[in-house]
Amino acid sequence: MYRIGELAEKLSVSTDTLRYYEKHKLLAATSRADNGYRLYNEEALRVMQFIIRAKGVGFSLNEINGLLSIKIDKASHSCADVKSFTEQKLTQVNDKIAELQCFKGSLELLVAACCGGEEEATHCSILSALENVDAINK
Amino acid sequence: MYRIGELAEKLSVSTDTLRYYEKHKLLAATSRADNGYRLYNEEALRVMQFIIRAKGVGFSLNEINGLLSIKIDKASHSCADVKSFTEQKLTQVNDKIAELQCFKGSLELLVAACCGGEEEATHCSILSALENVDAINK
DNA sequence: TTTGACCTTGGAGTATACTCCAAGCTTTAT
DNA sequence: ATAAAGCTTGGAGTATACTCCAAGGTCAAA
Ligand SMILES: [Zn+2]
Ligand SMILES: [Zn+2]
Ligand SMILES: [Zn+2]
Ligand SMILES: [Zn+2]
After folding, report:
1. What pLDDT shows up at residue A132?
2. How far is ligand 1, taken at its centre, from the CA of residue B81, in Å?
3. Residue A18 CA to nucleotide C18 C1', Å?
4. B110 partner at 20 to 30 Å CA-CA among A20, B1, B18, B36?
5. Where are the alpha helices (DSSP H) in chain A?
6. How far apart are CA A16 and CA A96, in angstroms?
């Protein structure tokens, strides 16, 4: 059994994070020592690794909560459930990327239009573009 | 002069948003009517359009605050200032896109690996991948 | 005059994921 | 014995951008 600090160290997360996850029903300590200290077993370690990996592919803690309920009772869920869950996330990510690509395109236009010199910004094309409706697409 | 509701309507934002921007020093009402109502002039309208456009290219309200201070006193700033500000934002956006592309790639692998059938999720490759360190890169 | 639409304020709530703090107990080492 | 390190709790703070609410004043029309 690991104490909270040991598990945190092993996973490179903070003890605060572990307590935060417990408070938010993602992962409870396996048990408590006589002195009240949290104790975690190997399974808890694996669950934390699951959470960390799920975060690594973009799932939010809330979504991970959903994944964990499925993981806990796999027999009550189908591959279709898991796959559509993941596809939804992918769609979300794609939407966000599209939005950022749009920002990127506009910002590149702005950067390209500005001389970047040390003179006064009174003639700056970036500011003009943001001031005038049309300037940005010119 | 526009009352808050008129300006909000014209710009397709909520009156709450306008009050929020005032509270956060982005745009104060031009003046107040005798009854205490906020009044906005054409310049305020243009400033709001500036804010909206700046949001449209990805700037946060905090960053827009910075842009507005430059806009208000262009003579004290250079094109270099504005350009580097914009370039920083672009870098930030690019970083975020890269992170999301990474999520996207992983999610696509996961989706591709899962059969998506109606059987029990006990054999689901998505869950296995999140459970095992190595499975995700296989 | 009364109704409805519009305005005011301060403050709380939402979502996300922690991070930090105070006050205090436990354990280990010196 | 005492200090340092580690643990406990509840709760506040951070960043972002609103959104909603209550309680109440204002204004124009019927
Ligand atoms: Zn220039
Ligand atoms: Zn410029
Ligand atoms: Zn399957
Ligand atoms: Zn599957």
Report:
1. 86
2. 10
3. 10
4. A20
5. 4-11, 15-23, 42-56, 61-72, 79-113, 125-131
6. 29
pLDDT tens per residue, range B114-133:
999 999 999 999 999 999 86
d(CA A125, CA A105): 16
The verdict on B9 touching A (C-beta cutoff 8 Å) is: no
Q: Is the CB of B37 under 7 A from strand C?
A: yes
CA-wise closest residue to A18 among A56, A42, A58, A45: A45
Find the residue in B nearest to A84 (Cα).
Answer: B116
Q: Which helix (H) or strand (E) holds A31?
A: strand A31-32
Half-sphere exposure of A60 (CA within 13 A, CB side): 7
B47 Cβ under 8 Å from any chain A Cβ: no
Residue pair B18/B4 in contact (Cβ under 8 Å)? The answer is yes
Which residue shows structure tokens 């003639």?
A123
The single-letter code of the amino acid at A75 is A
* Ion ligand 1, residues whose Cβ is below 5 A away: A 115, 117; B 79
Contact list in A for residue B110 (CB cut-off 8 A) is: 57, 86
pLDDT of residue A138: 39
